[in-house]
Structure formats: structure tokens, C-alpha cells
Amino acid sequence: MPQGTMLEGKVVVVTGAGGGIGRDIALQCAAQGARVVVNDIGASVSGEGGDAGPAQKVVAEIVAAGGQAVANTDSVSEVAAAGRIIQTAMDTYGRIDGVVNNAGILRDRFFHKMSLDEWDAVIKVHLYGAYYVSRAAANHFKEQGSGAYVHMTSTSGLIGNFGQANYAAAKLGIAALSKSIALDMMKFNVRSNCIAPFAWSRMIGSIPTDTPEQQARVAKIQQMTPAKIAPIAVYLASDAAKDVNGQIFAVRNNEIFLMSQPRPERSVHRSEGWTAETVASHAMPALKSGFYGLDRSGDVFTWDPI
After folding, report:
1. What is the pLDDT of residue 203?
2. Burial letters 109-131, b for 16+ CB under 10 A, else e
3. Which residues does the UniProt record annotate as the domain Ketoreductase (predicted)?
4. Bridge-partner residues for 58, per DSSP?
């Protein structure tokens, strides 16, 4: 494990850190000098079950490499439990400097077949979870006059994807949550940014591999290891990123993207105002060339990762 000092003296909470992207972020935070709270409930990708083993195993890896870490197995989806995650940092290390909201589950289903439970469970872990954990840290950040949030969003929400209305809604909500935190807390020297990761993990292990084309696609995705995401997460949690706030980045193998945020594209005006008829005859024909297609993430990121 390469050693550095970018996070020396800092305490960082990483949720969903028992495997995948979260594990690599926890490992690299520790390698850069942070004391890490490794949170993971040890559940399946769909959120069932619980096993203290994954979080404790990552802690053991960090300690074996000479770092400091403590395990926590509370759920981000319940407000009291999320509070205990942050309290673990306070009780163990006496402070909190960074929060990486990485915990997530999937319950993919086409919208017209999606159940209330499939909707609710995903929103609770991703959107409520990011809010609960962030809110629990907010007063500590305010009082000490510093802190950094790193949230995981997704191109499924920023762009679109099939069968993920629950996940996409939560992930786009997280991008708005992050921007609001950045605006509300910048006066306390607190920053909030998002990462949309491309990486092979359990979360996307259900992608079908029935055809040669699908197998080739999965083979490419498998090259995008979780370790590729960790460097920017470590950077965003560090003081080196003191001027980076309210941004959305995407990471795909060796590429880092700054993602756009919604802004007006074009406008059309009538001095006498609009009727439904003139909207149909004037406004829509004038605006139509700027309409967005029904793109999915794969339609926008069409080239092979470097």
C-alpha cells in the first residue's frame, strides 16, 4: 500500500466500505494518513442480511498495513443508526473531517413493474442515507469550521438507464443534495462534491452476459476496477481540494470528467404571452432542435475506456 500524507490527522467515515469502491476508498484514505471508520452492514446487493465480517476484514487490512481504522455495522437508512456511524468517529477518534457517502443497494425493475418496496428500499439507502449521515456530521463540521462531503451519484441519474427509476431518482437527488449542502455550508468552510463512478462491483454484477456482445461489454467494465475511483475521493476529502465545491465528477478507468449541471439552453418569447395553441405552433418548433434524446449512459459514453 503506497503511503502518503494528504489526509494526515483527519478522520474519515466511508459508508458501504466492506467491499468494492468503498473498500478501496477506505484503504486509500488510510494509506494517506486518515483514521477511518469503515461502515458496512454486510448485506447483499439488494440489501438483505447482515454480516459484521466485511467491515472488520477491511479494518484488519488497514491495521496490517500500519493504518488506523474502526468498524461500524449500522445502517445508513435509519436516522438513529446513521447518527451512530458518525458517533463512532467521535467516540473513537474525537473528531470527524470527512464523510464519503458510498453505501448503496439495487432493486432494478422496469418502472411499470416496480413495487413500492423496491422504490422505497433504494431511496432509503441512497438518498435518505446520504442525508442522514451528512446531517449527523453537519454540526461537527460547523463547529470546527471545516469538513468535506463526497457523495456517490451515477450516470443512471445524471443521464438515464433502463430499469432503474428508483436508483436514478435517488442518485440525481444526491447531486442536488450535495449542491445544497455546498451552498448552505460554504460559510463554515465545508465542501460537498459528487463522483459518478464507472467500476465493476457487486452492484453491477447482474449485467447479462448471454451474447458475445454482452460478454465483451462486461469484460471492458471489469477493467474499470474500484481502485480507479479512490484517488479522486481521497483528493476531494483533503485540504488540497479546498477550492473545489459543489461539483460533479465522473471517473471511468483512467479518465476523469467534470459533468455538466442544468442551465438554460435556449428560450423563446412572445410579448403578448402564450396560449396552448401558440406553444404548439411557435414555442415547441423553435425549441425542438435543442431537445434531448432518450439517451442512456451507454449512448453518451460510447468510446472504450482508456
Report:
1. 47
2. beeeebeeebbebbbbbbbbbbb
3. 10-206
4. none
Average pLDDT over residues 36-59: 78
Distance CA 101, CA 75 (A): 12
Mean pLDDT score across all residues of the chain: 92
The pTM of the full predicted model, rounded to 2 decimals, is 0.91
Question: Is CATH 3.40.50.720 what the domain over 11-258 is classified as, yes or no?
Answer: yes
3-state secondary structure the chain: CCCCCCCCCCEEEECCCCCHHHHHHHHHHHHCCCEEEEECCCCCCCCCCCCCHHHHHHHHHHHHCCCEEEEECCCCCCHHHHHHHHHHHHHHHCCCCEEEECCCCCCCECHHHCCHHHHHHHHHHHHHHHHHHHHHHHHHHHHHCCEEEEEECCHHHHCCCCCEHHHHHHHHHHHHHHHHHHHHHHHHCEEEEEEEEECCCHHHCCCCCCCHHHHHHHHHHHCCCHHHCHHHHHHHHCHHHCCCCCCEEEEECCEEEECCCCCCCCCCCCCCCCCHHHHHHHHHHHHHHHCCCCCCHHHHCCCCCC
Q: Where are the domains of the chain?
A: 11-258
* Backbone phi, psi, residue 106, to 5°: -125, 140
Say which of 132, 167, 235, 292 is annotated catalytic: 167
Kindly report which listed range (45-54, 68-77, 167-176, 240-249) carries the lowest average pLDDT score. Answer: 45-54
**Residue 132 a catalytic site member:** no
pLDDT reported for residue 305: 77
